[in-house]
Write a structure and sequence with these properties.
Strand content: 5-15%
Strand order of the largest sheet: 1-4-5
Number of strands: 9
Order of helices and strands: HEEEHHHHEEHHEEHEE
Distance between the termini: 78 Å
Largest sheet: 3 strands, mixed
Length: about 350
């Protein structure tokens, strides 16, 4: 047994760094169980669950977020992969490269910009089919989306990827060499770390982004409750908050990336998207207080008619209707002769 000084030194050294997982892929018979894929799936489930709760609280119907997700999720996965392949094309095209690897989404590589952009297209299609205003749905989904991104970053931890430069800080991340146990050849994604001597200790930028994303989620939930944001402003605040963090975190990363004007392309994208989100946030404020979503269940009985085929009451609309938020407005006399805003 070592001396107390030696034991303290070993414990201090261990606690001063973050060990990486030995592997990111486990074989379940012939099926590879990939931590990255599991994290993505868990994040999607969490986003749908939280988004559903927020949408119902806003007046939507239970199950509508899941209906929208049927369109948004596959669109988002395709968009995320397309952005990654387009901005990291040297990994897949050119001499000695296999273009079919561009389809291997299970090996990692999803660009959030493409995922949000094309996922938004899918959500728009779903919302149009359901008669739901997209900005209101986006506001309900925003916190869940950014937390899902945080969960997804755990997949990068298991893959030993997207880290920064060397560091001596107490939270440095240990990187191990992974090999295929059967052949002994290097295999960064599918291999196993047989030797736990770190080949380098680096900034865990995946962890920085994970914590930043959780902070953004808390910020937008607080702002939404405090200021009753609506008309897509919660989503715009999420985008602005995320891109602000992604800007400085991206500057710390050392993995190869396409550069524009001497900067990593994601740095440029962060700035452009941040400015766009701020502009939208300001302009959308002119639309007033948060809209209230009025939804009626199409499965509920329709109003009775007087026999001539017309309702005695106003028509029941199974599409979303936005009305002014009356929770914060003072009571005012209502002229029953005026038609209510739709």
């Amino acid at each position: 047994m070592g001396t107390p000084t030696t034991v303290v030194a070993v414990v201090t050294t261990y606690l001063a760094t973050i060990p990486s997982p030995d592997q990111g892929v486990w074989q379940l018979g012939p099926i590879p169980l990939r931590a990255y894929a599991l994290c993505i799936i868990l994040g999607i489930i969490l986003a749908i669950w939280w988004g559903e709760r927020r949408w119902v609280a806003r007046g939507g119907l239970k199950g509508e977020v899941t209906d929208i997700a049927v369109y948004a999720v596959p669109f988002g996965l395709v968009g995320g992969r397309l952005y990654h392949v387009a901005t990291d094309y040297p990994k897949y095209f050119g001499e000695g490269r296999n273009p079919l690897e561009a389809l291997a989404i299970w090996n990692g590589g999803l660009g959030i910009w493409g995922a949000i952009a094309l996922g938004g297209v899918g959500a728009w299609i779903g919302c149009r089919r359901k008669g739901i205003p997209l900005p209101a749905m986006a506001d309900a989904l925003a916190p869940g989306i950014v937390v899902a991104q945080a969960v997804g970053r755990l997949g990068n931890y298991f893959n030993q990827e997207l880290y920064g430069g060397p560091t001596t800080l107490p939270w440095g991340l240990e990187i191990y060499e992974r090999v295929d146990p059967a052949t002994g050849f290097k295999d960064d994604l599918g291999g196993v770390a047989l030797d736990h001597t770190p080949i380098e200790i680096v900034h865990p930028t995946f962890l920085y982004e994970l914590l930043w994303n959780v902070g953004v989620a808390l910020l937008i939930v607080w702002a939404d409750r405090k200021f009753r944001l609506g008309h897509g402003r919660v989503f715009a605040l999420y985008v602005a908050g995320y891109t602000a963090g992604r800007f400085w975190i991206e500057l710390m990363r050392t993995d190869p990336a396409t550069e524009v004007f001497g900067l990593r392309i994601n740095v440029i994208t962060s700035v452009v998207v941040f400015l766009g989100a701020i502009v939208y946030f300001v302009l959308a404020a002119k639309k007033g207080d948060r809209e209230v979503i009025v939804r009626t269940d199409p499965d509920e009985p329709k109003p009775e008619t007087d026999g001539d085929g017309t309702d005695d009451t106003a028509a029941v609309d199974d599409e979303a209707t936005t009305v002014p938020d009356t929770k914060t407005a003072p009571d005012k006399p209502t002229d029953t002769g005026d038609k209510p805003d739709q």
